[in-house]
């Protein structure tokens, strides 16, 4: 279209070799004629139609790169979080007057442990168990109004400890929870972000209460508490810093149990079988598991159905009740199964929690036992006939 302007035709452009699309144009002056003086060549004309797309491209690329970096910093790899934080997450076991007694927790520096106070109401004895099976006693320092309990581990552990994050993560940053599931194994699940959280009821069970909320580096940014899963909530980092700080402000003493009979968790006990899984070993595993589960549930009448006629006659119901009314057995490992004639010998390692005031406790509340159970068969059933200590009880700490 004729715009009304009159200009000389533009000379053709030369394209440098190897350049597919020129970003700027290169112009040459007209040839010099004899006797005609020419002015110095003018600089190449500015061509906005070529430069503007370049600027837009650079701006878009820069903005996109920043968005990608920000997005990457907000996401997490759950497997990596589990690898980094798993050794510092512990299982809490307790005998209490209310009989709750199980939760997850996180081990911090100086032997401090944070967990859900719902697991240690009116405690008689408390222990923590690591993912490698190490057991340590713990004292209850107190609990907060929002459901955090602070414990002090007795003794030491080789496990690395968790670190509280230096600041709250961005609201859009992903978080994960590492905690124990009912079968005693560690699990990791995404909690979503504070901006778009996953419903806690979709990722929790009762044993995960007390589990830490973690950022992508495995640092603690919250703790899951609550009396039940439907009532669960995440206590924020600022509160945890307060509770784990010097003097633990906001933490009040937890009243110790005064009941005559305390209870631990009532879930079924399944001993670990470290010998060949023969039919006899499987039968022993079932019997020992049933024996320990029934003991933990304080079903002393039912327990007697697992005794041989000789043991039932020598051990009265009243004696059984007195000996075990505060005990909780856990972590059994069957390390030997042999048979001599009609007698089967099963060597079992396990831990036991009990009241420090119980008969023979001597102020302790957790022991590691190594017993050999002698089992006999009566009317086709394998039954407990007696137990003999292979080694003296060892304190958990």
Automatic annotation (TrEMBL):
The chain crosses the membrane at residues 50-69. Residues 1-39 are annotated as: Disordered. Residues 1-10 have a biased composition (Basic and acidic residues). It comes from the Bacteria. Gene3D superfamilies: 2.40.10.120. Keywords: Membrane, Transmembrane, Transmembrane helix. SUPFAM superfamilies: Trypsin-like serine proteases. This is Serine protease.
